[in-house]
Amino acid sequence: MMLPIIGTIRNTVKIAQMDHKWQQKKKDGNVLKKEMDPQAKQIQKYKEDLQKMRESRQMSSIDAKLKAGGLLTPEEITYLQQKCPQKYKEYVELKNEREAYKRQMESCKTKEDVEKLKMAKMNGFLAEAKSVKNNPNIPEGQKRALMEKILRRTMGIQDEYMEFVRSGKYKALPTEEELAEETKEKAGRGEGLEEGLKNSEAESLDQEENEIPEEAAELESREDLKQEKAESQRGNVKKSRKSKTDVLPDLKQAADAVFQEIEMDLKGYLKAYTP
After folding, report:
1. Between 176-206 and 214-245, two packed helices, what is the crossing angle to 10 degrees?
2. Which of 2-11, 33-42, 132-141, 148-157 is predicted with the least confidence, judged by mean pLDDT?
3. Model confidence over 116-174: pLDDT tens digits?
4. Using CA of residue 164, residue 166, residue 168, residue 170, what is the dihedral sign?
5. Per-residue confidence at 180, pLDDT binned at 50, 70, 90?
6. What distance in Å separates the CA atoms of residue 113 and residue 108, rounded to the nearest whole number?
7. In Å, how far from its chain's centre is CA 62?
8. H/E/C letters for each residue in the chain?
9. Can you give the pTM of this predicted structure?
10. pLDDT tier for residue 33 given thresholds of 50, 70 and 90
11. 20 to 30 A from 261, CA-CA: which of 31, 100, 154, 222?
């Protein structure tokens, strides 16, 4: 892996040495016309070879990022725009799609909404890939190019999703169960305030009674026990319902499964039809 770099260093040193000798001969006045042209051409050829090697490495790095659906640096964008306008156009489309998807995730109300959005996006890619693959009217070369583009888009969306999940915005989102509980608590606080007003009125009416008969007190105690038991049962039902409605792990697993399916399908197709 180090050979190209070593070769580049050697070529650079060689050019520098030749250029130094050339400048020294020019300074001493010992340069003949017949030896200027071959030496100048050789120096120019080395410089051109080095430039081609640099461009080849830069293009390879850009291609690797594009294949992974990644984002480019400003310098890489400028280079791509100048050297390969078609790839630049595809990169802009990919970047715009990622930004639109990010805005959609940011507008989600719950974590489940984020997973549903991802699943819908991945299912769309999967359907598109299968349509291209099964279309007999598309030549194999064109199919390969379309599949590569779908794969880049898929990887870009997955990358954007992972960035969002790691962010504080995703962590701050409630689950659907938490959102439902919050809504219920708000409603309960409103009912509690109304009940408190009613109790206050009832207490003012009961102030005229000085003693509660012993039988009535015992009956009230029994009623309290019944109420506690009923509340305990409701609590158990609530826990049971919560476990049934906690669908976030299942949604995440399903969304990841669709991503893995399309990734394997596309990579397998491209591997099979790569000349």
Report:
1. 170
2. 2-11
3. 999 999 999 999 999 999 999 999 889 999 999 999 999 999 999 999 999 999 999 99
4. positive
5. confident
6. 6
7. 19
8. CCHHHHHHHHHHHHHHHHHHHHHHHHHHCCCCHHHHHHHHHHHHHHHHHHHHHHHHHHHHHHHHHHHCCCCCCHHHHHHHHHHCHHHHHHHHHHHHHHHHHHHHHHCCCCHHHHHHHHHHHHHHHHHHHHHHHCCCCCCHHHHHHHHHHHHHHHHHHHHHHHHHHHCHHHHHCCCHHHHHHHHHHHHHHHHHHHHHHHHHHHHHHHCCCCCCCHHHHHHHHHHHHHHHHHHHHHHHHHHHHHHHHCCHHHHHHHHHHHHHHHHHHHHHHHHHCCC
9. 0.62
10. very low
11. 100
Residue 18, CA atoms < 13 Å, CB-side half-sphere: 18
